[in-house]
Input
Amino acid sequence: MDRTPSKTRAALWMAGWLALMLIVAVAGREATREVNVFQLMEVRSVLGLLLLFPLIRMSGGLAVLKTARVHLHIVRNLIHYSAQFGWFYALTLIPIGQVVAIEFTMPIWTALLAASFLGERLTVWKIVAIVLGLVGVVVIVRPATGEVNPGQLIALAAAVGFGVSIAIVKSLTRTEQTLAIIFWMLAVQSAAGFFPALYVWTWPSPYVWGWLVAIAFCGTFSHYCMARAMLHADATVVIPMDFLRVPLTAILGWLIYAERLDIFTALGAALILTGNVLNLKPGAPVPARARI
Output
């Protein structure tokens, strides 16, 4: 696999990531006009499994899916399922720009959890990032006004859930292959959502089927684009490109749904993104004696 360092190639792959994630946000809003979120999640997971099998076959078959940590996969993916459910449900309650802005607190929760449970160092920059992220959420949600929208709280809970999920993934990557992690995610979520989806099932119209297929395709291969971008550039180069998703989603919400981006959401998003940038700063090198 080509790993030639190239910021241009990384940017092109990240352009694919951004495009696919923007489609997921719009597709989620459109699909939930007609089908329940449980049904959306189930179709997304089952179709995702079908889309994943060609990659599994090209990578050596079912042997790449072997794991000795099934229990951790189950815990991680039940949390991830709940967070993803909350993310899609929040799309039906608040502007998509707010959902994505609040979602970007996820790296901050991940840093906090990784420091607490995985032994990673909590640097000064990470502490500042966490504080800025929390302040940014308060600015967006504005609890003092008494006008807190339940969708904002659901989006925040989803971001925390994603943070827990990513922290567990950081642990899983020490022993598991990427395809195995994605496979178990889709398999566990398919099983978790089967009966709830069956209970609320209504046959989607051809219009909504199109959006559901788009969610499954874009949700699966957006992560492939991100992984390919990482092959050509460091995370400190790649991850800031994802910050474009906040203004792009807000613009999309304005163009398609006439959603206004108020000054509080813009200011809160700026604080959250600033925190993410600071979180990318490398910590001070560990002295040689300390590494022995």
Remarks:
- Residues 286-292 have pLDDT under 50 and may be disordered.
- The two ends are 34 Å apart (CA to CA).
- The first helix runs from residue 7 to 31.
